Amino acid sequence: AASAVPGYSPGFKKPPATLRLKRKRLQRSEPAAAAPLPCGSALRAPSAPARRNPFSSLDNAPRAAGTPQPRQPDRRPPPPASGSPSAAPFWQVGPSPGPAVAEGCSPPDLRLPVAVPEVPSSPRHEFPADWSIKTRLLFMSSQPFTWAEHLKAQEEAQGFAQHCRATETNLPQSIQEPKQSTELRCAFQQSLVYWLHPSLPWLQLFPRIGADRKLAGKASPWSQDEALQQVLMSDWSVSFTSLYNLLRAKLCPYFYVCTYQFTVLFRAAGLAGSDVITAVISPTTRGLREAMRNEGIEFSLPLVEESRTRKQKNSKVNLETEVANSLEVGNSVEDGEEPAPSDDDDESFSWLEEMGVQDKVKKPDAISIKLRKEKHEVQMDHRPESLALVKGTNTFTLLNFLINCKSLVAVAGPQAGLPPTLLSPVAFRGGTMQTLKARSINAKAKVHLAYEDIFSLEIVGPVMPHFLHSLTALLKSAQRGAFSAVLYTHEPTAVFNTHLDSASPALNKETICKDLPMCGLHPKTLDQLSQCPTLGKSSIRFLEMKDYAYTWKS
Predict the structure, then answer these.
(1) CA triplet 297, 283, 259: central angle to 5 degrees?
(2) Environment class of residue 404 by beta-carbon count within 10 Å: exposed (0-12), middle (13-18) or buried (19+)?
(3) What is the longest distance spanned by two Cα atoms in the chain?
(4) pLDDT digit string (tens) for 451-498?
(5) CA 548/CA 554 separation, integer angstroms
(6) H or E stretch including 523?
(7) I need a surface site. Which of 148, 223, 243, 247 has the fewest CB within 10 A?
(8) Is 474 exposed, middle or buried (0-12, 13-18, 19+ CB in 10 A)?
């Protein structure tokens, strides 16, 4: 049917042939004494059909009248299990089936950004600590967020003063008129403050991993000036050392060092279930780990050790069964396939001596073990499994290593010569006070054939762990114990929720309050951050409160 249309070449194998046919038709249809065309006009027959785009696919070819259109496969997602989109909660209702009507600005995308497990956690009065950095929070509620809009100058100043003085704010369980509550609005401003170094207003300094595209084309006078680079790094070293001293004195609970290749989280003693200072680095490479070993930094790879222990346990059980079966029939395992070499040396086969079969099992040689270890180390580079843990006094050695590490700063590209970003919840030398960006959005979505108001509050910026706890405590009172939140995680930091193998038993609240009296965080926030991480390599993606009880999905 497509071949019946003039000027259409189904195969598009020889375009010049089609053009020659058009020229012949043009010469036959036009009279010889045609009037001259004005200069610049196209030479085209009036009766010739419009030329088809030769780069379109055959499925989009023009068809003659009466030709039935082939049925296309239905690629729409299946309907929800409930049978109707209106049966889903309001936070899952997208702009369709009806157009969203925004008031003042464009409506937010109310659909979940990631695949979320169907089974949430059981309702609890507190959610676990999430040590990952969030780039965006989207709170939604049936109650408006007008109390978070247009803070007065006095309320803003009071919020800054409360942050600098580490003022503890305790709100009632429910606030009847949130917009009229000065205490709530000041506490909201207090909960948005963080400290940053370096401060370059025309550059977005978080996230740093994968930020070359956003930083491309921005002014960077230090990229070609080595003297300026040395000044920036010297100033950065002073700020980094100041933060570590605050951490060691337990006046700073934690801070982040964000480079263009990896992120380091320093935590004070008493947090994450550890009684010593800890530093976790992710992702790492074989070169970085070798450099740390050469500097005498003792570290462990918790996820690798956990996987190794699991594999050794499984292989031990399988080999025990194989040896037992072989001994029963009087055969030796020596002629069979040799066991796969583990990541450890020959000491990992000491358990064979306990069974008395060390001479009957063919063990891999040292070269095979070394090659396997090197291959495994390279394979886990830039992956969450490469998480490195540094504890105690080794964190001070890590501090000096990072200050003197030449690969800490990019030598080419948009981030060339730019020192790493330091993020802290408290003030430090050389740090600049910054605030997260907040805006409230009122939109309407079609639910049950009618429009319902959906109120949302968007928080954008480097959302550190204490922010989430502080903001949810405020929303608990302002939104009367009913709200939900979609959390956007900076993926390289999700692995910071890994449980530390060497973590001490859970420390009681009195010990935490005694050891960290002036770190600037609320006692309830400290109590949450002191617990051992339970989220593993994942992070909280969705958080919901109903009747003052939390449920979450990771």
Answers:
(1) 85
(2) exposed
(3) 109
(4) 888 899 999 999 999 999 999 999 999 999 999 999 999 999 999 999
(5) 20
(6) helix 523-529
(7) 223
(8) buried
